[in-house]
């Protein structure tokens, strides 16, 4: 009977189904208007509560808890109103094929976020809030109400900061799990870089625009470099270079939510990818470009990260780095060969690290040793096995 009933009342063919669909299409604009009005009311309540929180000072410390509680309550109601708008209005419009491309895309993103709930609840909790706020921010942008937009931006930037930090913290926690496999670990690395890119592309420009105290002057050069990668198709080299920039900026913006130990793992991943890029480069020109990128990355890794590292797993590694740091600081920046001397120091240090797993890195070790020969820091002689090269270190006396 059930099968027959389904055949008789085919949703695409029956008169009743067509009538219901037609009525739904008529009701959608009314529902959209009602939901929009509710969002406006709850948004205004939320903004007022947020502004009250911003004005908490020594004079009203007694009311602090009550003010914060009020803000949290109206913020939750505000998000619920946007969520309801998606389910009641956008979903209906997509179902009835009356939705715009923006609305279709919005619903698709919504379900991508919802999908996280079963497997990664902490990430879901932050990403859903982020998604709902982005949706309303776009709506306010389209309204051309500058006064409301300026008022909303202060809340939006503040809340987005905390949400992005929360997302990055969840990835940091997941990376600390030694039981996850290589594939999952690589997926987390990619998510970290994607999240950093989202923030720097969408939130940082607002913060720079609103910044009256030159808070971000230290990263403006790197930010301009990052903007070059927003247009056009990127190859592997471009993607790695973009990630290097993202990681460098993150050391200024997300010091606590992306801890040094996690940033170090990200640097090590990029070093591996860059070495692989050198090995797989199709011609000498691209090999040299990838090699120069490796030099820049080694410098970033040592100067921006390792030089700030306090806790080391092994005292021997700390002593090795102290020796490297001593040699680096001894280089004379005024010397015309400063760049060459720095390059030699970086490559020698990299070869030393790779030699601890010589079999795994034998191809890139050979490449880097050949570079040291070109730079005059090593001499090479052939033994009876022509496929291998033996090298001896050139001291400053021998080199002269």
Question: Could you describe the 3D structure shown?
Answer:
It is a single chain. By secondary structure, this protein is mainly α. Among the domains are: 1-144, no CATH class; 312-400, no CATH class. Helix content is 73%, strand content 2%. It is built from 16 helices and two strands. Strands 1-2 form a two-stranded antiparallel ribbon. A hairpin with an 8-residue loop joins strand 1 (378-381) and strand 2. Helix 5 (121-143) runs antiparallel to helix 6, helix 10 runs antiparallel to helix 11 (260-280) and helix 11 packs antiparallel against helix 12. The longest helix has 40 residues, at 15-54. Mean pLDDT is 85; it is low at 1-13, 15-32, 384-388 and 395-400.
Rounded mean pLDDT score: 85
Structural class: mainly alpha
Shape field: elongated
- Report the sheet with the most strands, covering strand number, pairing sense and barrel closure: 2 strands, antiparallel
Through-space gap between termini: 97 Å
Radius of gyration: 28 Å
Strand element count: 2
Spatial strand sequence of the major β-sheet: 1-2
Give the helix tally: 16
Provide the succession of SSEs: HHHHHHHHHHHHHHHEEH
Fraction of residues in helices?
A: over 70%
Low-confidence stretches: 1-13, 15-32, 384-388, 395-400
Into which percentage range does the β-strand content fall? under 5%
